[in-house]
From TrEMBL, chain A:
This is Uncharacterized protein. The chain crosses the membrane at residues 26-47, 59-77, 98-116. Keywords: Membrane, Transmembrane, Transmembrane helix.
From TrEMBL, chain B:
Its main location: membrane. The keyword Transmembrane helix applies. GO terms for molecular function: cytochrome-c oxidase activity; heme binding; metal ion binding. GO terms for cellular component: plasma membrane. It comes from Tranquillimonas alkanivorans. It is a multi-pass membrane protein. This is Cytochrome c oxidase subunit 1. It catalyses: 4 Fe(II)-[cytochrome c] + O2 + 8 H(+)(in) = 4 Fe(III)-[cytochrome c] + 2 H2O + 4 H(+)(out). InterPro entries: Cyt_c_oxase-like_su1_dom (IPR023616), Cyt_c_oxase-like_su1_sf (IPR036927), Cyt_C_Oxase_1 (IPR000883), Cyt_c_Oxase_su1_BS (IPR023615), Cyt_c_oxidase_su1_bac (IPR014241). Belongs to the heme-copper respiratory oxidase family.
Amino acid sequence: MQAESDPQQDDLILAKQEGREALSAWAGWVMAPAAWALHQGIGYAMVPWLCALGTRWPYHALTVFAVGLCIGGALMSRKALRRSRHIRPEHSRMRVRMMALIGLMFSAAAFGGILVEYLPSFLIDTCNGVDR
Amino acid sequence: MTDVGPALRHRDDAEGRETLATIERTWQSPKGFFGWFTHVNHTNIGRRFVATALIFFAIAGVLGLLMRWQLSAPLNEVLDPDTYNQVMTVHGTAMMFLFAIPAMEGIAIYLVPLMIGARDMAFPRLNAFGYYVYLIGGVIFLLSLPLGIAPAAGWFNYVPLSNKEFSPGLGVDIWTTMITFIEVAALTAAVELIVTIFKLRAPGMSLNRMPIFVWAVLVMSFMILFAMPSVIVASAMLMMDRLVDTQFFVAEAGGSPLLWQHLFWFFGHPEVYIIFVPALGIVTSVVVTFAQRPVFGYTALVLALVSVGMVSFGLWVHHMYTTGLPFMGRSFFMAASAMISIPSGVQIFCWIMTLWGARIRFEVPMLWVLSFFAVFITGGLTGVMVASVPFDRQVHDTYFVVAHFHYVLVGGAVFPLMAGLYYWYPKAVGRMLSDRMGKWSVGLSFVGFNLAFFPMHQLGLEGMPRRIYTYLPEMDWGFLNQLATVGAIILAVGFGLTFWNLIYSAYRGTVADENPWNAPTLEWATTSPPLNCNFAQQPVVQDDRPLWSWPERGKRTVVGGLRTDRRETMVTTLLDARPQSVQVLPGPTPWPFVSAVAASVGFLGLIFSPWFYLIGFFGAFVTFVFWFWPRKPYRED
């Protein structure tokens, strides 16, 4: 004989499942913009300091960190996307899929943004216009 | 949850009618003059926000016309230099702070609960408080002009021009205090919109089923939360520089005038997108309805909206290319400024694909949207031009920039807003707007707008600077300025027709049914105008276009079990909108109004003495205590 399902228990299980998914589903949404904003904000603020030091290595390190954050967000979104296949009901699956896809694309866009902002540092005189 | 017949109403028998009457009594707003100050229902507050914003828009528009009159000929003497500066400052400030944001928030406040199938906003009293703050702040700010004490340092209030030394008098003080005050209203609206969208969606409306307009409002609200504190901090610092002699922006004392620009534009640039993002939601709603097909690329559109919101915070330095910033720093912002055209392009392509091959109904809202496409794309193209450092340095502070931002702001926000007014007016008022007047209004506005602002590109390229009150005949700018003035008059007639239409049709318009456009979203599932409780029974959603799929399914599912004798709405989970609990909402009360008056006494007094900070603080505190006093349902529980 099949045991009757307890609606409250089912709700609790679903809520827990939703909580677990939330972290990976939101990852791309949060990590990608954070990476881009950090790279732009800190990069912009550190220009006079770089010129005083006479080196660009801290900026390269910042870029590597920001790209790492983007990749982290992309990987977590990808994980959420792969897991979404097993999620029921259907509309929850579609919701997780949408959020993960956006997270993935967001990470790619932020990666592109970081790259576009990073490349000019090889082409222009970083310290032009800085009071030294 | 129970299945009911074809409408979200109670049964059409004596018992059903009695139940509906009880709910309506519960959600009713008091009548009469004093009753007006106690309203908290989102439909009342949203309508007030929009109406007040439109009145402020008309006033700011008249100021714009005055400026155009002054500039229509060289050495004109319609306005003296100081009055011109005041008019220019109040025009810009009113358009941005008193019209654009509140109008968008008003539409959001009115529509979001209806669109997500809720009975009201999460914090109805905070909603009312925000409106009174906005109303009082706006009226005081605008009154400064006829009193001759209006600010005259531009809507951007750059220091050192706005310091006490170069801007004596009360003008800048009024700007700093009233803008800070009005932004409180923007913040309250943002907070409650976020909570409402996250927690009060109808069961089944998971994030991937939310209408694009609701997504747009969500993004706008988060942007307000991040952007507004920056201008509040900046204006508070300027207020202190002027009032208690702090030196935040005084270079001689070690302060930084450039800090003002950073803080102001960190708010100022996202501000443009705060206005623009909900407009994108309006455009999507109109496009979907008049193409009669689901939006193409729902996920891409959401991604584009969120991307626009995010990238808009990384552009502010492009307003400061000529302030002597390092090359590399500028290059970051040049890249970001060009980058924002990508998500904007994605949206345009999604709309084109939605319209492609559809049997488009060219009704008035759709005509406004088509005008938006033409004007906004032009503004977007010049935006990419001024994003580039070398080009920007050539046209900085010229009329080219004036042309660009009017194309973006009017094309990107006002035209969609007009589309929204024509689209949702039948729902809000219960009558259709006149189609004939509407078509004349679109035509005149489109022609007038382009005649007014397109010549400004050329004026800018010829070197005409912004913010000047006159020019010499030898400059040869007279003809293009005259053309712009004629265009401005035609534009004013175009918008004026819509204003007249709004008033006329409220009495004489054809009576609208529930869903006159055959739209797919939930706001069209209730009566026009909506019931006091929005929906007699809250709907349950099974896909992203419920009104199109209900006839296919042959039934509608609704929420049952909510009490009728007190204001209750469903609370659902953030991601999948599964039922979680029931929220008891507060009823009408005058305390938000009293609190707003107490807070405004404090802010207004700050212009004269810092002691008013304490008076305002304690006044607001006392009124908040009465506001939050435990109310009846909780005492009963």
